[in-house]
Amino acid sequence: xxxxxxxxxxxxxxxxxxxxxxxxxxxxxxxxxxxxxxxxxxxxxxxxxxxxxxxxxxxxxxxxxxxxxxxxxxxxxxxxxxxxxxxxxxxxxxxxxxxxxxxxxxxxxxxxxxxxxxxxxxxxxxxxxxxxxxxxxxxxxxxxxxxxxxxxxxxxxxxxxxxxxxxxxxxxxxxxxxxxxxxxxxxxxxxxxxxxxxxxxxxxxxxxxxxxxxxxxxxxxxxxxxxxxxxxxxxxxxxxxxxxxxxxxxxxxxxxxxxxxxxxxxxxxxxxxxxxxxxxxxxxxxxxxxxxxxxxxxxxxxxxxxxxxxxxxxxxxxxxxxxxxxxxxxxxxxxxxxxxxxxxxxxxxxxxxxxxxxxxxxxxxxxxxxxxxxxxxxxxxxxxxxxxxxxxxxxxxxxxxxxxxxxxxxxxxxxxxxxxxxxxxxxxxxxxxxxxx
Length: 437
Known about the structure:
It contains 15 helices and 17 strands. By secondary structure, the protein is an alpha/beta fold. It folds into two domains: about 10-295, 3-Layer(aba) Sandwich (UDP-N-acetylmuramoyl-L-alanine:D-glutamate ligase), CATH 3.40.1190.10; about 305-435, Protein-Tyrosine Phosphatase, Chain A (Alpha-Beta Complex), CATH 3.90.190.
């Protein structure tokens, strides 16, 4: 009897059905699954990126630089903004529906073999990671830019044995229930991606304890630690982009331009510059590719100017450090604007601190529910939070956005923030709204 081929919808249903297996930190399951699959991760040239903030933007810069240099580049990130396929890309093109279905069916078959032999069912993130590795192997990519999902040490992506580079971006307080309540514990988990004799780029850090932890792990692993130096000068900082000069121990760079906004994005661009300096030792990557990569990199949902009239900015700021950056960006770019914020925050975040920060720059904050998330507040809980902080509460994010737009006027700006899940849903809604205007 011929086996029915899985459809794209069935593939997504299967992937999302594995959510019930929760988050299990540890590599035993993913290693076993990949073993059943023939270890597709082996032989891939991986640039592995961990950190609390700036992982995605750093991935975007490095990914674009390598594409500009003429390489076939796989990009693995999470979460997605608008649709699932965004998480797995080849040269910026998301995996197509048919290929996702085909690989998911292959992975599902291997999971069934695992279960028959008494092994545990992989989690959703492990399944998606396995799909990503298989896709990159089949596409014969030159590099994989691989973003850690959670932490580092026990993250499913950490099955990579010999990365080309390990990059650790800015570390702050997030996922403390899993990673630990001190910056040292969190940094130790992120440092778990450091492998024996690897090269490690440590991005600009807010906390000196991070450097101490990473340095210690590098010594234990005989890894080369390369610290990003905060040596740059901003020439232009406007809503249409930033231009800066910078100096590294190996070079001087003039008039570099990026479209991602905020001084923290210059620090993420520095991670890319240091990666370029390491990679060019072994690969043909010209300075022009670096320059074009920085200029052409895009990372939606991070202080993204989505519309100019009315001015609508999308920012996934989903933890305290992210919200601090958003507040600074509002002061830099929107100081002359009446800001109306639509905020949806997951209940396992430090929402009290995040709301207080947001209120310092927004004339009005409308609290809303994060759609389609099990970690979201219930309507009753969200109403209680709104009452405690003196916020307007509108449960449906679409109604909240429409109301915010009605309030802001010509001299105003709407900021939609607090969760990438909210920003992704809002982005889709706004695009649909524009198409019918």
